[in-house]
Amino acid sequence: MATTKRFDVKDLGLAAEGASRIEWADRQMPVLSAIRDRFAADQPLSGYRISACLHVTSETANLMHTLKDGGADVVLCASNPLSTQDDVAAALVEKFDISVFAIKGEDNDTYYQHIEAAVDHKPQLTMDDGADVIGVLHSHRREQLGDIIGATEETTTGVIRLKALERDGALGFPVIAVNDALTKHMFDNRYGTGQSTIDGIVRATNILLAGRTFVVAGYGWCGRGVAMRAKGMGSHVVVTEVDPLRALEAAMDGFQVMPMERAAQVGDIFVTATGDKSVITREHILQMKDGAILANTGHFNVEIEIPALRALAVETQTLRQFVDEFKLEDGRRIYLIADGRLVNLSAAEGHPAQVMDMSFANQALSAEYVVANAASLERKVYPVPEDIDTEIARLKLATMDVAIDELTEEQAKYLASWDEGT
Known about the structure:
single chain; about 425 residues; alpha/beta; eight-stranded mixed β-sheet; 17 helices
């Protein structure tokens, strides 16, 4: 299928390889596939323009396919300069006739040009992973805000930014916080990020994790997953936190908890997973061992003070793909993976399709919900409706051939009453 749509991808000649990867992922995403079949029949998104700013991967391609089959006119751009799978981008254009603006390794100017191209689509609905499209719309494309009925947001960092907009009374349209769905953050963030972060580090470095001191900054759902998987690989795991409850949970889970100032002196591998900035600073870098490895699995590459690392270095070189060495004045060497960007998507392939099945099912059903309920939604950040969350869990269990009990009428009545005692 030759496309007449606008696009900017690396090479359309990669489309056949990308189509095979999309098909493989689709076979691991039965919940989204079932939703696609219903969307194709019911056309719940018919006539709506959607601009999506997400990681351009084979799993995302199946979400785009689902939205298009549901009747939407879809444009996709990348939500990270290093996360694009170029063959998948080509396949979406060539095989699925979807406009894509994404090239792995694109510079900062190109990255934002691509976001502008997605906004040029004049969307009525947006999908974000980090709130970049919403950020552009609220900064210098405000004339388009009135055309947008709603949005969805995929990740923790984006939800934080959008709730700040809402608190300031500046949010221009309703947003569904897909990230906060239980079937998203409990599984995608924990099991997906946990596995794929370790995958990215190992692919980039080929190091042995067993016996190493592995420092995880942040013990949210992503940090929990990384810590769990690093421990499973034989690492001694140290957790740093600013939240006393999460720090207590990490300690109760058997991890050593300490401030980053102390962790910097003992760690061999550092992974930031906070969604905040300046988590590893110049002062921390100066405390680190020779050979320390730094990586980030938070959304933006601001968690590690990379400018400070560059300023401290007297010599730099790229030793392996995605691994840069920084030699300090005293001879110590510090290694940075994937320029501090999302290590699981930059140096590997991101989350397994089986877990993205639930996350993108939430995206598709939330888009349908926004279209159906646009007239009653206010300019707020909303949770994913509980019935959508529950339905996705039910569908996922069915695809895994897992059966569960149901409440009897007597049990349901007991749980809903107050007058029956012991």
